[in-house]
Amino acid sequence: MVEKIGQHITSWMHRIRFGDAGAISLYQIVELYFLGIIKGTLTTRASSIAFSFFMAMFPFLIFVLNLIPFFPIANIEDTFSSFFLSVAPTEAQEFLNGVLYDIQSKPRRGLLSSTFLLSIFFMGNGVNAIFGGFSESIHVSLNRHFIKQYIYAVGVGVLLGLIFLISIAGYLFFELLVAQIFDFGFELNMWIRLVFFFGMAYLVSSILFYFGTHRGFSSFFSAGALVTTFLFALTSYGFGVYLDNFAQYNQLYGSIGAILILMLYIWLNAIVLLLGFELNASIAKLKQSR
Fold this sequence. Notes:
The chain is mostly helical. The chain is about 80% helix and about 0% strand. Strands 1-2 form a two-stranded antiparallel sheet. The radius of gyration is 21 Å and the shape is globular. The protein starts with a helix and ends with a helix. The relative contact order is 0.14.
C-alpha cells in the first residue's frame, strides 16, 4: 500500500515539468534539492552566518539609532524601536529593549563616523559569511577569489543597510499618511507591518541570492527567494509559539537566556536562507546540464 502511494507520487512529480519544452521535472528538482541539503552540512554553514550577523547587529543598531534623529519625522525613534522589537522573538524583546533604551538615552553622535565604519566592517563579515555558506554548496563549482568576494560582500552589506534605512523611513511615512486618512487603528498597522516584513524578506533574499556566487544561480526574482520569504514567516511564528509555550530559557539561564534565544533565532533563519539558495542552485544545475 505504502509502496503504491510512493509510486503514484513519484509518477505525478515526473509529469510536472518546468523550463523550455518541459525539460526539467519536479522530481529531478526535489531529488537534487534534498541531495544538496543532506550532503551540504547546512547547520555548520548556518552557525558561521549566525555568529557573524550577531556580531554585526549591535554596531549597526548604534549607528542607526544615532542617525535616526536627523530624520525630520515625529516619534521616529519610538516607532523604529517598536517595529524592531516586533520582529524579534518575544523572550528576547526585554533584553533588546534594554539595549535600545541604553543607546537612545546615551547619544553617541560623536562616534557616528566610527560606528559607521565598524558597522560596515561587521556587515561585510556577515554578508561574506553568507556568500561563503553559498559557495560551500555541493551544487557550486566556481567561486570568487577571497578578496573579490569580500569586496562584493561589503558592497552588498552597504546596499542592504541603505535599503533598510530607506525602507524604515518609507514605512514610517506610509504609516503616518495612512493613519491621517483612515482610522483603522492597530489592525491596519499590523497589516502594514506584515506587508513590509514580507517585502523586505523577499528583497533581501533576492539580493543575496543574485550576488552570492561567481556566476549567480538565479535571476533577481526566483523560486528560492519566494520559498525563503515564506519560511522566514513560518519560522518566526513557529519559534514564537515554541518560546511562549515550551521553552524556559530565561528561567534556566536568567538574562543570558535572551542572548541564547536571539542566537538560536538568527541560526534558524540562516538555515532558511541556505534552504532557499539550495533550491535555486538545484534548478540552475539542472538547467546547465540540459
